[in-house]
Amino acid sequence: MLKKISLLFVATMMLLGAWSNNFEKAAYSLAERIMSKSKAQQITFKQKDADKDFFELKSDKKNVVITANNVNSMAMGLGHYIRYCCNQDISWENFSQITLPDTLPRIEKTIYREARVEDRFFLNYCTFGYTTVWWQWKEWEYFIDWMALNGINMPLACCGQEAIWHRIWRKHGLSDSQIRAYFTGPAHLPWHRMINMDKWQGMLPKSWLKEQEKLQSLIVKRERELGMKPILPAFAGHVPEALKEIYPNAKITRNTSWGGFKDTYRSFFLSPQDSLFPIIQKEFLEEQEKLYGTDHLYAIDPFNEVDPPSWEENFLRKTAETIYNSVAHHDPKAVWIQMTWLFYIDQSHWKPQKTEAFLNGVDKDKLLLLDYYAEDTEVWRKTNSYYDHKFIWCYLGNFGGNTMLAGNFKETSRRIENALKETHGLMNGIGSTLEGLDCNPLMYEFVLDKAWTPLYSEKQWIDKWADRRLERADKRYRQAWQLLVDSVYTTPARLGQATLTNSRPTFKGKGNWTTNPKINYNNEILSEVWRLMMTAVFDNNNQTEAALYDCVNIARQYLGNKFSTLRDSMTDAYIQRDILKFKQAKNQMLDLLKDINEITALHPAFSFDRWINLSQSHAKNNEQKEYYRQSATTLLTTWGETPQSLNDYASRTWSGLVEGYYARRWKMFLDMAEEALQNNKEFNNKEFTRLVTEFEKKVSHGEIIYQSKKDPSPFKKLRMLYNKHTHNSSPKNN
After folding, report:
1. What is the dihedral of CA 728, 731, 733, 734, to 10 degrees?
2. Backbone angles phi, psi at 711, to 5 degrees
C-alpha cells in the first residue's frame, strides 16, 4: 500500500511539473514573439501555486523574474513589466514595434499584484463584424498575445461555426446552395449568429467556410496555450427557413423584423420544446468539440433584439431551462454565458418578473451573465444582482466601430469599485464588450487593469499611460491626457455617435439617428490638447507610433467637431440668400473634409484602404474580390438596404471613406443648394434624397474609387495641417 501511495505521489509531482513547464514554455514563447528571443532570455518565468491569480516581478543577479500561478498570470506580469518598467506601449493591433534596450531594466523593488476577480472577459459578437471579420492568423496571433498581456482569460470565440452548421444542415437534408444562401455575407455574420437576420448578401463562399474553420482551430489552440478559456457557441434555436419543408410539424416560428430589413431577411426560431431541438444541439456540440475542443463555456443568446414567441413567464422559464438542459446533456460541466443587453435595450418588454423567470430557468452555478453596458446602465442594480446569479461587469465603450472620442473614465472606475464592494461575490469578473477596436484604447486598458489590485491612483495611472505613449515622461503630454480625462472622457459612448462630417447632409440637425455629433465639452479643449501633444512630440523629436496615433486621433475629432460650425454658417447664408457667404462656407467645408482625409491617412488605424485590402486577402478569384469588397463596404456605409434605419451606423472618420463617400455626399448637397440659390429656387430635398440614395447604393456595392498614399514624413504633414488649423504657436521643427 505504501509503495502505491509513493508511486501516486511521484506521478502527481511529475504531472504538476509538466504543467509548470508548459506554463513557462508558453510564457517564453509569448515573450519571444513580443520582445525578441535575446530579450526573452533575460526573463525567468516561475510557476507557484496559489488560491488566486497573481504575479510577482523582481530581479535576481542576472534576469527579471516573473513568478505567477499560471501562464495567463505570467503573461499579465510580462505586460505589466513592459508597460510600467520599460515604458513601452503595446497597441492592440500591431502598429508599432516594442523597442527595448539590449539589457532589460532591472526591478529595484518587488512588484506584486493579485487578481480581484476570477474572470476577465473580452469581445462582443459585433466585434467579429466591425473589426476582426477580415483578420487572418497574423492579426489574430498578435491580438491574442495582446489579450494575454492584459490578463484576459475568457475571450469570446465566434469564428468557424458556419462550417459546422453547414455540415449539420446538410445532414438534415438541405442543399449546399440553400445553406450558403441562408448565411449572410462575412461582415454581417455577427447578426446572423445573434438570430437577427438571414440571407443578406448570402452565398457565403465554400473557401470562406474552410478558411474560418482552420482559423478558429488556431485561435482556440493559442488562447488555451496562454491560459484562456474561449467561449464557444451553442445552438440557441436559429434554423434555416428551408428546414420547415423537411420537418413540417416542427415548431418553427418567424422572428420579429430587425434593423429595418425586409421580411425576406427575417430569421426563424425552433422552439426548445420541440423534439428536434436537442437533436440539433447534440449534433452541433459533438462536431464543435471534435474540431475545437471545449472549456465548458457556451455563448447562447436566443432573444437578442427580437421577441420570443411568447412573453408568458412560464414559457420564458421553461425555454431557458430546456436550452440549458440540451447543452448539459452533452456536457454536464456546461456553463451558459448570456449577454444581458436585451434586458437593457428592451426594458418595455423585459419587466422584472419576466427577466427573473427567464434567468431562474437555469441553476445559479450554471449561468454567468454579462452586464453589457455597465458604464451607462448597470443591469445588476435593476435586477437585484440578477436574482443572485453571477455576472461580469462589462465596459462597452464603442458602438459600430465609430471613431468618436468617448468614455467616462472616472465614473467607470467608481462603478467598478462600488460593484466589487456591494455585490457580495456575485460580481465574478470584469471585462469589455466593445463593438469595435481602434478608438479610445485608453479606456479598455484601464478597465482591464482594474481587474488586478491597484498600484497607482487614477492620476498616476494616466501619467504612466502618457509616458509610455511618448516613451518618456513629459509634463505637457501628461497634461494633455489629464485634460482629456477631466473634460472629454466624461460621458459614456452612445449609439450613433459621429461627427457631422459622416452624416447624410442636411441644413439642420443630423441626417439620421446613427450620426449624432453632440459633444459635452468645448472644442477648444481639443485644440489645447493637440497643442500640448504636438509641442511635446516636436520639442524632443519624440516621434513614436503611439504619439502619431494620438495626434491624428485628436486632430480628427477636433476638425470633425469644427465641421458642425461651418455647416451652420452655410445654412445661415442659405437662409439669408447670401450667395457669396454661402460659397465661402461651402469652400471651407469641402476644404476641411479634404484635410481630415489627409490627416487620417497618416496612421493605418484610420485607413479604409486597409479595411478593403484585408477583406480582399480572402479572395480566391476576381468574383470573390468583388463579393468581399461589397460586404466590407456595405457595413461601413449603408449597413444594409438603402434606405433603412441603420444607414451610417458603422461610420468611421477614415481616410478613403471621408474623400470617397462623406465628402462626395456633402459636395452633392452643397452643389444643389448653390444651384437653388443662383436660380432663386428652393432646395429640392426630395430630389436630393433620390440622388444621394442612388449614390449610397453604388458605394455600398463597392464603388468607392480611392487609394491612399503612405506619406513618407507623417509628422511633417501633421505639423503643416496643425499650423493651418490652429492659432497656437507652431511646434518646433527639429
Report:
1. 170
2. -80, 125
